[in-house]
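A reminder from the course coordinator: this example appears on the midterm review sheet, so study it carefully.

Given structure:
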């Protein structure tokens, strides 16, 4: 059979049943492989795990022609905002159940391509399943899960660190001081913008320094072995709780989520790099391992919960104000926003940005898991960290589920090519219905000084279409 006979008429059927036939040029299909690559510092090569195929995506430039091409493209774009599963009859790869993902780009070339409108979009195949109601998640539930992790991680840390000599005591104190300094170096730039939070942060940091210094006197001043062990557990609990509370604070302030992720990811990298195999005793190695795991768990838990609450707050804020005038059809966000402070001027988080945030959180979780598994294998450390490990996973996946649920009601990013010169204020009013988001528009599009007066014809600009 010739290839011409195998091609189908390209058509998109929206969740509401509207059909949109379109023309196309180059087509492709992209498939993510669910693989994990694990590298080890003491050996060459890598261990690769393969768990099958992941998402299949179909990037397409959908072309509409004729005197009503713009109207066709407008209606097609509107259909892409609909929630639920749609159907794509791909000209080469057959009929698949899909959901539009990523961003939408609209092009109308009024000079070289009259009577033609193009819409660039990526369709991702989805696994069909029965719709289930999404349970509401409150900020209190997220904070309660973090507190459960705090207690289980603190108890694990306190029960597993110990020293027998003054030398080991000094090594442990040095490890904790170094880690506290790394936390400060990476968290202070995040929290500097909030004066009240910065003052609270410094108070907790000072308490942590005092508790760390208190470890020094346990060996030399305590004679009873039982009393020595009890003192060590008490000090260990205090150090761990203060460390995790210190790391939680920056994740709760009102700044961009991606800025927070950068700070916590850099902290995780520095903490892993700081870990060293001490040649002078397995006790020092074990203490270093447990303190590193404490900080890594704090990184993952803090950014996961902080990101989930920030995105929920942004969604609640945008649902309370009209982001633009484009109608949409999603149900209310499954989040009780009465537990959080909403910043009315918070940056818009788009649907694709929320998915990227999820990927970053899971990557940080994988970093923690990889470090833990490799160090246990290389250093023969006995790890009984089941309770805190389970608490961490429950917290992270609760936060991920919340973000994924809310992402369907977040704005979609749209890119258009201007067909004439436009003034910024006029364009923002047209796209958003007000000038409230003009600063966000300027930042998103990196407008230069000339473009602040007039944006030239042919310039691509990005804005957000709210789904409410």
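Designed residues:
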């Amino acid at each position: 059979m010739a290839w011409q006979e195998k091609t189908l008429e390209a058509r998109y059927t929206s969740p509401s049943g509207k059909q949109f036939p379109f023309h196309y040029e180059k087509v492709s299909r992209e498939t993510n492989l669910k693989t994990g690559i694990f590298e080890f510092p003491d050996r060459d090569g890598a261990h690769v795990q393969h768990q099958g195929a992941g998402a299949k995506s179909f990037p397409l430039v959908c072309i509409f022609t004729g005197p009503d091409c713009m109207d066709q493209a407008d209606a097609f774009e509107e259909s892409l905002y609909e929630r639920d599963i749609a159907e794509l009859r791909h000209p080469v790869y057959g009929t698949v159940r899909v959901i539009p993902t990523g961003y939408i780009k609209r092009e109308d070339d009024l000079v070289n391509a009259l009577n033609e409108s193009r819409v660039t979009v990526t369709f991702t195949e989805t696994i069909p399943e029965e719709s289930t109601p999404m349970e509401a998640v409150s900020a209190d539930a997220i904070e309660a899960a973090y507190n459960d992790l705090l207690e289980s991680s603190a108890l694990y840390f306190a029960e597993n660190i110990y020293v027998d000599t003054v030398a080991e005591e000094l090594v442990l104190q040095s490890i904790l001081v170094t880690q506290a300094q790394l936390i400060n170096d990476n968290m202070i730039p995040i929290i500097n913008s909030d004066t009240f939070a910065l003052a609270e942060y410094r108070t907790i940091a000072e308490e942590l320094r005092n508790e760390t210094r208190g470890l020094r006197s346990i060996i030399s001043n305590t004679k009873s072995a039982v009393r020595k062990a009890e003192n060590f557990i008490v000090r260990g609990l205090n150090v761990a709780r203060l460390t995790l509370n210190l790391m939680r604070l920056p994740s709760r302030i009102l700044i961009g989520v991606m800025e927070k992720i950068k700070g916590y990811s850099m902290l995780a990298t520095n903490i892993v790099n700081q870990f060293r195999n001490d040649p002078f005793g397995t006790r020092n190695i074990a203490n270093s391992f447990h303190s590193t795991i404490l900080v890594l768990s704090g990184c993952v838990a803090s950014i996961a919960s902080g990101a989930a609450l920030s995105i929920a707050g942004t969604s609640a804020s945008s649902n309370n104000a009209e982001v633009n005038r484009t109608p949409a059809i999603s149900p209310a966000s499954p989040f009780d926003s009465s537990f959080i402070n909403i910043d009315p001027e918070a940056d818009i988080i788009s649907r694709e940005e929320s998915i990227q945030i999820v990927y970053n959180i899971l990557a940080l979780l994988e970093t923690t898991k990889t470090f833990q598994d490799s160090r246990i294998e290389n250093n023969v450390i006995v790890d009984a960290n089941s309770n805190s490990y389970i608490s961490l996973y429950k917290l992270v996946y609760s936060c991920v589920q919340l973000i994924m649920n809310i992402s369907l009601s977040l704005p979609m990013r749209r890119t258009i090519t201007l067909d004439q010169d436009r003034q910024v204020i006029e364009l923002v009013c047209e796209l958003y219905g007000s000038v409230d988001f003009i600063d966000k528009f300027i930042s998103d599009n990196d407008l230069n000084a000339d473009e602040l007066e007039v944006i030239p014809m042919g310039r691509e600009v990005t804005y957000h279409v709210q789904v409410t």
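Residues 3-133+411-465 form a domain with the Elongation Factor Tu (Ef-tu); domain 3 fold (CATH 2.40.30.200). The longest strand covers residues 46-65.
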